[in-house]
């Protein structure tokens, strides 16, 4: 799915078309002075993107390692110095 690129003035003049294309074809990029400044996308696509973001805390809470105790103590008998 390749988004269409609209110049700002054209997007303003054809706003309904830009919206319809965002709904039917996917994200629509708008440029100003040749620079991409915004992307118009459907609410469903936006919700999908936002939902896929998980906080670090949630990531660890959902980890298959939850509840497993790890021995994180360093063996004092092993040297700390390493040659690089």
CATH superfamily grouping of the domain at 1-45: YefM-like domain
Tally of DSSP helical segments: 4
Q: What CATH architecture of the domain at 1-45 would you give?
A: 3-Layer(aba) Sandwich
The share of residues in helices is 25-40%
* Terminal Cα span: 47 Å
Summarize model confidence as the mean pLDDT: 89
Strand content: 15-25%
Give the C-alpha Rg.
24 Å
H/E topology pattern:
EHHEEHH
Summarize the main sheet. Answer: 3 strands, mixed
Low-confidence stretches: none
Molecular structure report:
With 84 residues, the protein is an alpha+beta fold. It has a domain at 1-45: YefM-like domain (YefM-like fold). Helices cover 37% and strands 18% of the residues. The protein is built from four helices and three strands, in the order βααββαα. It has helices spanning 8-13, 15-24, 43-51, 56-61; strands at residues 4-7, 28-32, 35-40. Strands 1-2-3 form a three-stranded mixed sheet. It is elongated and about 75 Å long. It starts with a strand and ends in a 23-residue tail after the last helix. 5% of the residues are buried. The mean pLDDT is 89.
